[in-house]
Amino acid sequence: MGNNCCFRSRPVAVNHHNSDTTKSRSPETERAENSQENGGIMVGKNISESQEDVKEEVRLESEANTSTTTKKIMPSSGRILTPNLKIFTLAELKSATRNFRPDTVLGEGGFGRVFRGWVDHKTYAPSKAGVGMAVAVKKSNPDSSQGLEEWQAEVKFLGKFSHPNLVKLLGYCWEESQFLLVYEYMQKGSLENHLFRNGGEPLSWETRLKIAIEAAKGLDYLHTSEKSVIYRDFKASNILLDGAFHAKLSDFGLAKFGPLNGNSHITTRVMGTYGYAAPEYVATGHLYVKSDVYGFGVVLLEMLTGLRALDTNRPSNKHNLVEWANPSLSSKSKLKKIMDPRLEKNYPINGAMKAGELILKCLEGDPKKRPSMNDVLDDLVRISEMKEKSKERKSKDKESHQRSPIHRKHGGKDIPYI
């Protein structure tokens, strides 16, 4: 939901099943095709809809080449068959958010706005403001070019996967040509807010490491799941924080299942956020599991420096954080100069140096040379332990050397200064 420039093209679905788009198909055939296109999740129509509402297909010429693709015009309402999620009505979500009042807006992104609402803890029925459980309701922008495809991806992935470091999707709504998602509410907002925005609560070194470790756990879980998932949009604005600064990954609109049958990568449209996307993906459209590791390295660099990955308001040689900071990450004296001043030098320099080394590994140009997220996680835990040992040493040194300010040591005895 940040202001970073996104290179997202308008989603256009390719019809892999039949080149004759005018040929009529039975509802059974259509449902089977939908199931394949959505990773095995069935897209079904509401029972009350008429047969004439079955979606049409319109031929479009791709702007990138002369090949013919198809764009699907979806019915105005529907549901995705998944047992873990509640299907909300639009009326329920209007009630929960007080008709999407402007003062309930939590943020805004490419998909649309996010509103805070209130529901009952057990039934998820809408409740009065301040009563029950707070939720975040993401409502599609009618002008969004991402809309349906990202909405389906969110339901597909978050409806299937559950982990302490992934934001919990409670339910969804698809009604009156609007797509909505209902999540658990994260009280502290995004990591982006705390790193870059004026008035944001400064994060200590310990808290930053905690967030990095928990975000790494979420990404490692996705990469090592039965069907490896490539997150594809790892950035500070997609890391949400609860009241205790526990980190959870959000926004799975661009997520993709990873390569199969021993393949090293998948090939897909280049979508994501400038500054975070891996160079091999931007250049070729080849998406590796370790393309996510590059994005993680960029965010870790942001956490060290307190600077955005891209910022044209900085001097021209500093627009791109990775290019500017890279030479400083292996030098102790240079690293000290680029560390976030809001840390007020309250960090172990050896831990910061190890973090710099880890960032350089994550930013390797060759994805094969980057560490796995499991290896990244191990390194972060070791850096955290270094921090704790450093604090213990300082505490012991302080205790052993602490003396009264009006005494000095002389001949093995304390005597007062005169």
Automatic annotation (TrEMBL):
Keywords: ATP-binding, Cell membrane, Kinase, Membrane, Nucleotide-binding, Serine/threonine-protein kinase, Transferase. GO terms for molecular function: ATP binding; protein serine/threonine kinase activity. Residues 100-383 form the Protein kinase domain. ATP binds at K139. Its EC number is 2.7.11.1. One of its GO terms (cellular component) is plasma membrane. Its main location: membrane. May be involved in plant defense signaling. PANTHER family: OS01G0588500 PROTEIN-RELATED (PTHR45621). This is non-specific serine/threonine protein kinase. The lineage of its organism: Eukaryota, Viridiplantae, Streptophyta, Embryophyta, Tracheophyta.
